[in-house]
Design brief:
mainly alpha, 306 residues
């Protein structure tokens, strides 16, 4: 029996490792094709003050496989022998074997046109493109860059929005045994989960207090969780965001600690400090679990506004 438990735990750790590095693999940056073209982005952007759309027809591209690099006639508007040199060797490494970029193979669903219409700056996705003579994968967007907007609130974070084979992607990130291994993955990098999963939609389906199958909290935890909070048995904020999770319920139910009802909770009597000041000195962390230092509760006029 002991060997079986050890074997099961080993499988558990292996599944966690696979899940973690699979997720990291899914975050891999775009690769850029080998180019036979000589081009200095920094010089064109900084010295010649050319905008991105002068060379790149991003406003017309609706597919990720579109090659939005400038055609020769675009280059020749300047490289005409008068404004700039038109020598072939200036741009082509081998003038005897002039090649263009190879066709791109992209499984990502992406419309430059749609993003341009949203007035999203090119450097939001391609940082430093105007400061590098030769662009690398560092100037291509990572998945985390996309999640800055596609957070599930401002814009959809569904895999199918960008990935043509979302089912395969999910299996890559969430291999067999992931349901049991995701706890360790979340502990290693909570941001990895938060990129796709919203607490109120994904986590609480299993981790709510009234779920008989849930293991995070026992049944009826909703009613006695204040005791655990006060005793600091666990860090609630490791899973729950105060503003989006706690405050909505506490305000609706008008829930507050019993001590807040004391007559001198906020009023300072002659020679006696207010009760909340005493409690704050004893355990200010307990106060900050609900009240942030810059919120109106604390910084209201006449209190902590100075």
């Amino acid at each position: 029996m002991k060997l079986l438990r050890l074997f099961s735990f080993a499988l558990f750790l292996a599944a966690t490792a696979v899940a973690y590095f699979s997720w990291r693999g899914a975050q891999a940056k775009f690769t850029l094709p080998v180019s036979s073209i000589i081009f200095d982005h920094k010089k064109h952007a900084k010295e010649f003050n050319l905008d991105c759309n002068h060379c790149h027809a991003a406003a017309e591209s609706e597919k990720s496989v579109d090659l939005i690099l400038p055609k020769e006639e675009v280059c020749l508007t300047c490289h005409n022998g008068e404004v700039a040199s038109k020598e072939c060797a200036l741009c082509h490494r081998d003038v005897k074997d002039i090649k263009t970029y190879p066709p791109l193979e992209r499984k990502i669903l992406f419309s430059h046109k749609l993003h341009v219409e949203q007035n999203i700056d090119c450097f939001t996705c391609h940082p430093g493109s105007d400061a590098k003579p030769v662009l690398t994968a560092d100037q291509m967007p990572e998945m985390q860059t996309c999640f800055a907007c596609h957070d599930g609130a401002s814009e959809s974070s569904e895999c199918e929005i960008c990935h043509s084979d979302a089912k395969t992607l999910r299996r890559l990130i969430h291999p067999a045994g992931y349901l049991h291994a995701h706890k360790l993955l979340a502990g290693l990098d909570a941001a990895a989960c938060a990129s796709c999963h919203r607490q109120e939609e994904s986590c609480l389906a299993c981790h709510r207090g009234d779920n008989l199958l849930g293991s995070s909290h026992p049944v009826n935890f909703l009613f006695f969780h204040p005791l655990d909070v006060k005793a600091k048995k666990s860090d609630c904020q490791s899973c729950h965001e105060i503003e989006s999770f706690c405050v909505s319920c506490h305000k609706t139910e008008a829930v507050q600690p019993l001590s807040h009802s004391a007559p001198n909770w906020t009023v300072t009597l002659t020679g006696v400090p207010s009760r909340h000041a005493i409690e704050a000195r004893r355990d200010v962390e307990y106060c900050l679990s609900c009240h942030q230092t810059d919120e109106p509760t604390c910084a209201s006029a006449g209190c902590h506004d100075n």
